Amino acid sequence: TAADGFVHDLPGARVVFAAGARHRLPEETARLGLRRVLFVGGDGPLRRTAGELVAALGGTVAARIDEVVQHVPAAEAAAAVRTARRCGADGLVALGGGSATGLAKAVALEMGLPVLAVPTTYAGSEMTDIWGRTDDHAKTTGRDPRVRPRTVIYDVELTLGMPAALTAASGLNALAHCAEAAYDPAAGPVVRLLAVEGARALAAGLPDAVARGRDLAARAETLYGAWLAGTALGAARMGVHHSLCHLLGGAFALPHAETHAVVLPHAIAFNRQAARAALAPLDRALGAGPGGSAAALWDLGRRVGVPRSLAELGLSREDALRTAEALGARAVTNPRPVGPGDARELVLAAYHGLRPA
Ligand code: NAD
To answer: Would you say the CB of residue 239 lies under 6 angstroms from ligand 1?
Structure first.
């Protein structure tokens, strides 16, 4: 409550959110004063868009990296830094999901260059100061203001071709940012409002965005929710859900968004007692029944067809137990303390993937 007091500190990016906003990229790079851009991303289905944007930027593009690997392997990050140095880059444009943004951030972390992000999934990395890197199967993350993109261009048209499976999993990834920001005791009232409104928009938009990928209204609502989710992620401390997903992503290279989709209902159920008051607005925003947000998000996951369990993602029970040990040994800020027994309970729940009671 307001009587408890709070700290409000919400650094943000300039956000341009509109259908067709990608056409404003040259104007926005000029606004940042960029003359030698390293263009990152735009592989596979985004190749044509990347070609269009690079052509529109013309001589401003000093170099391109189009192959992007998930979870920012240290070797790729080092190679990108070398490319940026070699071409004398004065800034980066990242086109793609969290992996493209993540690679641009790795260069920004090393060289302090400004990033302009054009996100194409709901990952939310474009709104945060969080960087990640994977060395030898361990993922390290940290926070640094230098990696937070200065400008973000959200163009809903770039999301219309996102396959249904990625749409569903990525939307639940964004919902995870909302949930963990909502129950972070240190998050102030504005961040909680962003988190709850983000969750509402994501839950409202996602089913139609999955069922009819080219539904512009549903896509826009979902992308709007993803923006708020990313903003909340950038302004709050993440709890046990994100810790567990990072461990799984780093150690077993499980697919990022799907892992979040699987773990989320169980992480919320795990925190339900300890964070009852904080979760109440989220329950309302999701129109949750007696099972609260945990069951509501499990049901949403089933409706949009995301994987149900860590077992289904190919994790062995042995590796699940090993992960629980690692999680129990970590210092995690979370409403409910995470000792070894608690960690095992959570990981096994996600491993089996049954609907939280
Ligand atoms: P991704 O960026 O790895 O993209 C997944 C796949 O989808 C890629 O093959 C990509 O080419 C394709 N794709 C992306 N957009 C598309 C579109 N519109 N249409 C068709 N295909 C498209 O996946 P992601 O889930 O966005 O990002 C995951 C990575 O981001 C992880 O490494 C994760 O750790 C990181 N992340 C970081 C933060 C942060 O704040 N630092 C936040 C969220 C995620």
So the answer is: no
Report the SS3 class of residue 38: strand
Beta carbon of 128 within 6 Å of any ligand 1 atom: yes
Nearest atom within ligand 1 for CA of residue 147: 41
The pTM of this model reads 0.97
Question: Does the beta carbon of 49 sit less than 6 angstroms from any atom of ligand 1?
Answer: no
Backbone angle region of 44, left / alpha / beta, with phi > 0 → left and psi within -120 to 50 → alpha: left
Give the residue, by CA position, lying nearest to ligand 1 atom 9. 44
Q: How far is CA 256 from CA 40, 97, 117, 334, in A?
A: 19, 11, 19, 21
Tokens of 20: 């067709």
Residue 167 Cα, ligand 1 centroid: separation in angstroms? 11
In degrees, rounded to 5, the angle at the alpha carbon of residue 183 between the alpha carbons of residues 179 and 189 is: 105
Q: What single letter denotes the amino acid at residue 239?
A: G
| Residue 164, ligand 1, Cβ within 6 A | no
230 lines ligand 1 (CB under 6 A): no
Q: Which residues in the chain come in under a pLDDT of 70?
A: none
What pLDDT, in 10s, does the model give residues 100-128? 999 999 999 999 999 999 999 999 999 99
Q: How far is CA 223 from the centre of its chain?
A: 12
Residue 175 CA, ligand 1 centroid: distance in Å:
15
DSSP letter at 161 equals T
Which one-letter amino acid corresponds to residue 317? Answer: R
**Distances, alpha carbon 77 to alpha carbons 81, 145, 254, in Å:** 6, 18, 20
> What three-state secondary structure class fits 69?
coil
